[in-house]
Amino acid sequence: MINQLRYVLWLGLLVLLWFNYTTWTAQFAASAQHTAVVREAAAAPALSNSVPQTPTPPASVPAAAAPAPRPAPKVSTAPAAVSAAAPVIHVHTDVYDLEISTEGGTLVKVDLLHYAKVQGSKARVQLESTDPAREYLLQTGLTGPSGADYPTQAARFSAARLEYRMGASGELRVPLTWHSGGITVTKTFVFHKGSYRIGLHYLVDNRGRAPWTFAAYAQLFRNDPRTKGSYFHPTSNAYHGPAIWDGHKYVELDPASREYQHFTREVTNGWIAVPQLDFVSAVVPPAGEPFRFTSQVSGSDYLLAAAGPNQTVAPGATLSLTQTLFVGPTLHGQLVKTDPTLGYLDDYGFFTILARPLFWLLSRVHGVTGNWGVAIIIVTILLKLLFYPLSEASGRSMAKMKALGPRIKAIQESYKDDKEKLGRAMMEIYKREKVNPVAGCLPMLLQLPVFIAFYWVLLYSVELRQAPFIFWIHNLSARDPYFILPAIMAATGYLQFKLNPAPPDPVQAKMMMFMPLVMAGLFAFFPSGLVLYYVVNSLLSIAQQWHINRRIAAATKRTA
What whole-number distance in Å separates Cα of residue 177 and Cα of residue 165? Predict the structure, then answer.
């Protein structure tokens, strides 16, 4: 019975893997259709209730100052194309090499200095970009009634200089200024040493004769053709696209879904973001203020916007407001420091409740060892110790079954033509020897959720991206270049098979014997950090089972 159950578990795992493969293939097989967005040169942005074809600010400010009810922000899926003539401000910090266009104060290029596109390459991971093949812009501004002049993403700002570098103070402020009709708006980006959080401050100074009404907004435009996922590297199937925190829960606004192609929601204490596996661009509006979130999709283009309530500055008065941007890797500590709910972007799926404590443990061990591979080994050992009582019970049951192997085989030979008598004889020997055939599998089932959670931690933690181990393993997030770990995995799987009781059915026995080779083949193209975890866990299981088998064998000889 124990062998049949183990066989079913292995078969179920293979079926699940195959199901995942066929599902991912079906989902990404069709090439992404790209619908071109017509971009007309316009002197001023146009506003309409439909998805316009020209760059537009996101909202027309309503007459009433109350935030609700109000019309949805009127956005375009075409970004405000950055004029070639607009000067660009270069900003250098310890984590960024970025560019801000003086047209709108738009982030048009963000290079992450600590993250190479490919390990060993000088090219950095780039988030915001004006590359037509993968346009990705973070636009911010103030807007108001149609026909008036406002510092939108299409407005021209002035800057004191075109290059800024972070100094010893650890803080860098980059101000841009806009003037019109007695109104002066100073838009300041604030950078901090070692941080991917960017402060965005507005100071509105009304030197005119009439009140000035405006609404702040921010929007993320991206040209993001859907790509085909890879079964051999599951991280390529991770969600990338618009997402929000609606004040209560995390929502992925999949552009392929009709529901989210024209999405509108009033949100307080939320944020908008565009995650892409290990990296994200996000906008966090001020707490306590109602913002209207919208998303619009046109082919492979989508635009996610957040428009705030109306605010009015009296003549001779000033008003300041703040937003927070986050552009960088999904480092959990920095995300939750920016906003506690941003931690949901560092998502481990269904097993998050178990994965977060495991990642906390892994990161603490890494803080001591300084090597993620060593941390994986130590945490695997700690998990093995945690579950040792369960593993001990499972191992003892398997050892007893292995010791009973010759007697069980004799019974099977004696009653091979009488299934009923065979069943009774098997139950009698199990009862007499106090062996439970299922006891060896139940502990494994109880451990499974923890091990799956650890799997997701290793797969989706940006901290392990391109992390070296030792010798030939230079990147724990990539496959073993020489397939040495998968070969060790196959060998350890075969040793486990030999240590455990063999299935009575010869066909099952052969399948179980070849199963380690099949599993090694499946894991051969997985990140080497995952294979390392599996190999260490298998070696510990072998040592434990060998020790238990020796004890049971010695006890059997003493009582014989």
Answer: 19
What CATH number did the domain enclosing 289 receive?
2.70.98.90
Task: Identify whether residues 203 and 109 lie together within a single domain.
Answer: yes
Angle, in degrees to the nearest 10, between helices 388-403 and 405-414? 50
Residues counted in the chain:
560
Asked if 277 and 238 touch (Cβ cutoff 8 Å), the reply is yes
Secondary structure of residue 190 in the 3-state scheme: strand
300 close to 312: Cβ distance less than 8 angstroms: no
C-alpha distance across the termini of the chain, in Å: 26
Tokens of 304: 């996610």
Are residues 474 and 328 located together in one domain of the fold? no
Strands (E), 183-289: 183-192, 197-206, 212-223, 243-245, 250-252, 262-268, 271-276, 279-284
Six-digit token pair at 416? 């091979």
- Structural contact between residues 194 and 95, judged by C-beta atoms closer than 8 angstroms: yes
Q: How far is CA 200 from the centre of its chain?
A: 25
Q: What is the pTM of this model?
A: 0.77
Looking at the structure, tell me whether residues 190 and 310 fall in a common domain. Answer: yes
Asked if 365 and 340 sit in the same domain, the reply is no
| Domain termination residue (choose one: 347, 371, 390) | 347
For residue 15, being part of any structural domain is answered with no
Q: Which spans in 294-387 are helix H?
A: 332-338, 352-369, 372-386
Q: What residues make up the domain containing 109?
A: 58-77+85-225+239-347
**Whole-angstrom distance, CA of residue 134 vs CA of residue 168:** 35
Question: Pairing mode, if any, of strands 163-165 and 88-92?
Answer: parallel
User: Which residue type, as a one-letter code, is found at position 432?
Assistant: R
Judge if 306 and 442 occupy the same domain. Answer: no
pLDDT in tens, the chain (560 residues): 444 444 444 555 554 454 444 444 443 333 333 333 323 322 233 223 233 333 343 433 333 233 333 333 344 444 445 555 789 999 999 999 999 999 999 999 999 999 998 888 889 999 999 988 889 999 999 999 876 799 999 999 999 999 999 999 999 999 999 999 899 999 999 999 999 999 999 999 999 999 999 999 999 999 988 766 555 556 556 778 899 999 999 999 988 888 888 999 999 999 999 998 889 999 999 999 999 999 999 988 999 999 999 999 999 999 999 999 999 999 999 999 999 999 988 878 778 888 889 999 999 999 999 999 999 999 999 988 888 877 776 666 766 676 777 777 787 777 777 778 777 887 877 777 777 666 556 666 777 888 788 888 888 888 888 899 999 999 998 889 999 999 999 999 888 878 776 665 667 667 778 888 888 888 888 889 989 998 998 899 888 878 877 776 776 666 65
How many separate domains does the chain show? 2
Kindly state whether residue 303 falls inside one of the protein's structural domains: yes
Same domain assignment for residues 332 and 358: no
Q: Are residues 192 and 288 in the same domain?
A: yes
Q: Tell whether 317 and 247 lie within a shared domain.
A: yes
